[in-house]
Amino acid sequence: MTTDISIQVHGVSKQFDEKVVLDDITLAVPRAQIFGLLGPSGSGKTTLVRLIAGIDVPTSGTVHVLGEQMPQLAMLSKIGYMAQSDALYAELTAQENLEFFASLYGLTGTKRKQRIHDVMELVDLGAHLKKQVSNYSGGMKRRLSLAISLLHEPGILILDEPTVGIDPVLRKSIWQELTNLSRQGTTILVTTHVMDEADKCHQLGMIRDGRLTAVGTPDELKLATSSATIEEAFLYYGGVKQ
């Protein structure tokens, strides 16, 4: 695997009992790119990102992140993962949640304090640092989960539907930050249903019924399907001819 490829998935399938959830997926994500996985609910996106994050293992095939075969415990410090469901301690304050995850990542002292401040400002929760998470709205919990995934400045960021329930203004600023991070060398894998977010990705993988139906830049996918928008291309690859 070349050093320019951060994530390499080769021939990956995943089965739960008799149900095939992923079927022979192969893709490569270059370093410092934003790679979007676009597909309907139940298409296999979440299963795929869980395999890449090392939370689950494929039935067949291999997953490499930064050259290491996953799952690999030592890779956790290099990956920021934001799940679809928020993994937060509701009885603790936001600050206590952040302090806990910072300690897992080995952040201490001034650096820890600065990172907590920076990520909370980014997601516009600075004023709610001392608030108990059980009093957070759904959108605030999503934003706190994103802050936690960014805390240790990981080289690989894996975000599963990161902007669900987040208002359009903040969504725009979060995407500006993701673009900035990719320019600084962070590789970002993101799942989304939102077409204007898909357009902001460097590359897209269209996934349906556990199969990768197309991979390319947004412009390449639009050109290949004679589509004016990424939504039209998405419908085309989903079998809905225009």
UniProtKB/TrEMBL annotation:
SMART domains, alphabetically? AAA
Q: Which InterPro entries match?
A: AAA+_ATPase (IPR003593), ABC_transporter-like_ATP-bd (IPR003439), ABC_transporter-like_CS (IPR017871), P-loop_NTPase (IPR027417)
Task: List the residue ranges forming a coiled coil, or say none.
Answer: none
Q: Which residues cross the membrane?
A: none
Residues in ABC transporter domain copies: 7-234
Gene3D superfamilies per record: P-loop containing nucleotide triphosphate hydrolases
Q: Which UniProt keywords apply?
A: ATP-binding, Nucleotide-binding
Example GO molecular function = ATP binding
Record-linked Pfam families: ABC_tran
UniProt name for this protein: ABC transporter ATP-binding protein
